[in-house]
Amino acid sequence: MKSLFIIKYINLIIFAIIANIPKTVTDASSSVNLISLYNSNDKITVLTSQNFSSIVNQSGTAWLIEFYASWCGHCQSYANTYREIALDTWTWKKIVRVGALNCYAGKNEAVCRQYDIRGYPTLRLIPPGTSSDNTSKGIDIPAMNANAVEKGLIKELDKMHKKYKLWPYFTPVNRITFEELYSRIPPTVKVLLVIAEKRDDFTGRHIMLDFSQYREQIAICRTTTDGKLWHKFNINLADVPALFVIFRNGTAQRINIERNNNSNIDTGNLFNNAIRSFIHRTNFIDDFNDHDLEEVILRKNALKNAEKKQKVTENKTKTDEIGDNSTVYRKVNMVDLELALSYMFREEVPQMKDIQGKAYDALVQWLSVLTKYFPGRAPVMAYFQQLLLNVNKKPLGFSGSQFRDMVDMKISNAYLPNDHVQYQHCAGSAPQYRGYPCALWLLFHTLTVSQYQVGSQQINVTEVPLAIKNYIKYFFGCKQCRDNFMKETINISQLDSQNKHQAIIYLWKVHNNVNKRLQGQISEDPKHPKVQFPNRYLCTTCKSINNSQNNDDYDISKTIDFLLDYYSRKNIDISLISNKSRRVEELSSEQERLVSTAEYKAVKLQRVAYKNENLQHVEYRSEKLQHEEYKSEKLQNTKHKEEISQQVESTNSLMRILQHSSLYVLIASIIILVLFRRRFCKVKTNRYII
């Protein structure tokens, strides 16, 4: 037992040694600068993996949550729309709250994986009281303009409102009298309002939510034109939607709505303003506060001004002139490529709940291209070969979490580093700019060039582009980017198979088209504008002197030569990688040495322990045998003593008999002796006579 304890202790020492050696693979989130696109001034709760459960799960309100990635260009463009949604629904906070979670920040990707988020941005409505074990209850709402999202949100809240007593009653009251209305509302209500509208109108429900925080003092109902109650208001279809106040004496009074030709003011806001004006005039409501509304109006005006400035920027004519030549990179950096691959396989692909069928085929296709053409270091290439082998062993597919386990495999001299601190060539002027999408384009171009340079006379020109397209289709996180890329590459199967440069030129044209479309948008880095590539600083002979933005103005032959050189293996900067690699290899060797030494000592000690155990076992058996021999000897001695005792007893008995009859014995002895003498003498006499 003592030896087993020693062995366990040695194993703990080995574990401690390994744990304290600097690792070659670290948390993916630590390798990039991370931000949130929002703050509390936006009326949006910034959620993280640390606060998500305590804030959202088991909440007394519903939650509308945007799951996004800060690198996603469309998420950046959509941020102002989501801010507008949050401001419009701020007064609904007793019913539904608005939050946002950056899936690219810290350990937030685990929450996104738990909720099966497969694209950014994703808007999901989570009902009140939803536990972390029941994430399937979430309802997706298409990420469209603010008005469309608010209508979609109202529809979903309408479907579930009967489950929650404190929520507004969205069901139209069509078969009821004015007097009966008061019997259905709390006695504390001081104002009863009825909105007459068409059944598919959202005005009534919108107003109910706007004033839901005053539900103890204001009751708002809606009646629709397909019922009977609205006829009592003596209005026609052209008058709806219309607003009425119902008094306790059973009379109704219409509240005039100031119609406004300003298209920026919707019907809901007009009704909202009319009700607030009525409340201020009548003083029916205690502690009525307009501060929330005033703050919302100010914030919305600020948003509109920002959008106007953005539109002005987008409408400006841009050229590919770059004022600061220091922003031009003449080499591709391996750090960017490996960071992109690390995020791709550790975070993006595992986000898919189940990788099966066409998604599985796309993953195999992508890994096959990487193993063939990625100009990586030996350990990285060995890693991808092993990963492809492991994936091929499971042709029926696997879950995203199972794939993550495959990616985290530990193999000597085969690894995908995840310890790079930040992007190099693809570093943006702020954390939300460039980064992963930039590195992904670098990777794509590098693969097309590498295929040409390592290929034979006849290559499959669609192999790399199709692998790229299918990866984007099934795994890339940005939804709109994914859809746009599918449109850009719709003719990918029509590439000229006789032209070995076709894939290189095709991807270059697609990338320039994307840059042209994204010029001036909010996702553009002001220090790295979206211009046509290559610019005149990188290639002085590639483009005609008029610096036109069109691809047709490039000299294709010279551009091909430039691309073949720029994305070639020899132009990949591995200086940062080399320093890291040596350190990693040193640490790996030291780790192996310490582990092997510790294991040797453990094995040696284990053998000694086994010998000690065997010796102890022999000694124990010897002691047991000696004990048994002692018991046997003792038993024999006892028996021997008993036999001697019996003999002595027999002798003593005989002696006692002799003592009591010594005379008889003497007489008998004499008789025997005489008889014997006589017989002997007779025999002797007869012998002489003969």
Looking at this protein, list some descriptive labels:
disordered C terminus; 51% helix; 690 residues; Glutaredoxin; 4 domains; 20 helices; flat
Please characterize this protein's 3D structure.
It is a single chain. The protein is an alpha/beta fold and 690 residues long. The protein folds into 4 domains: 45-163, 3-Layer(aba) Sandwich (Glutaredoxin); 178-296, Glutaredoxin (3-Layer(aba) Sandwich); 332-570, ERV/ALR sulfhydryl oxidase domain (Four Helix Bundle (Hemerythrin (Met), subunit A), Up-down Bundle); 638-676. It has helices at 2-19, 52-55, 73-88, 109-114, 146-160, 178-183, 203-210, 267-282, 291-315, 334-348, 357-373, 378-392, 400-407, 436-454, 463-475, 479-488, 502-518, 556-566, 575-660, 662-689, and strands spanning 45-47, 62-68, 96-102, 122-126, 139-141, 191-197, 218-224, 242-246, 252-255, 332-333, 354-355, 398-399, 572-573. The protein has a 5-stranded mixed β-sheet with strand order 1-3-2-4-5, with helices on one face. The protein has a 4-stranded mixed β-sheet with strand order 7-6-8-9. A two-stranded parallel sheet has the order 10-13. Helix 1 (2-19) runs antiparallel to helix 19 and helix 10 (334-348) packs across helix 14. Mean pLDDT is 80; it is low at 1-33, 317-324, 592-600 and 683-690.
